Amino acid sequence: MTNPTAKPKRHLHRILMAGGAGLVAITVGVYGILGGYGNSQSANSCAVSLAMAENAAPHVGGEVAAFLPAERPLDLSALAFQNDKGESRTLAGFSGRTVLLNLWATWCGPCRKEMPALDQLQAERGGKDFEVVAVSVDRGSEEKPKAFLEEMGIHTLAFRHDPSNQIIADLRKVAKAPGLPTTILVGPDGCEVGTMYGPAEWASGEAKGLIDKAVEAARPAS
Q1: Which of 91, 97, 103, 219 has a Cα-to-Cα distance from 128 of 20 to 30 A?
Q2: CB atoms within 10 A of CB 30
Q3: Residue 92's domain is classified under what CATH number?
Q4: Is 60 domain-assigned?
Q5: Separation between Cα atoms, residue 126 and residue 121, nearest integer Å
Q6: Alpha carbon 110 to its chain's center
Q7: Are 44 and 51 in contact (CB under 8 A)?
Q8: Contacts for 206 with CB less than 8 Å, ≥ 6 apart
Q9: What is the domain range of residue 69?
């Protein structure tokens, strides 16, 4: 994970334990993050995402060993960013679909490394039930991140951008964006299913298996 203002690893463990996530082996530093954005929702309003987290939990391991299933899902539907036309969009617009929200930047080495895997995941799993939403947080114009995606041969992922970095500010208020990359699985109800701090091999069998199990729990019983 790329982070210019690292703190000792013990600080991250205290944050995670306070949130009920337990001890997780994470070999990165974090920003100091506090706040109250995105309150935990009632059991009913985030029931789908909670069921998804419970279904995915037994499949945490391997390339996604650091994935943290949500115990008290947060409503993230108001998180905003821009599409490739510069129009404002929020996660609420993906209602009914599971989203893997990935925050990245061209200056973040681990982000650059995992981008092809995210592109492959979208190519293999993207559809009416699931989409990878990768949001560039590069400041300034969209030219640099778009040029990077072109250079890397990333053609399946739709371009999303937040030059204001407001999406990071909002997530830091609920201790959900300690650095880049940060990736959050969001259920069709707009609530958090689980979070990954740092890079992962998202095209791996473990990652696809975890996501498949989460999406499976979101489908109506036949």
Answers
A1: 103
A2: 23
A3: 3.40.30.10
A4: yes
A5: 7
A6: 14
A7: no
A8: 59, 61, 62, 63, 64
A9: 34-218
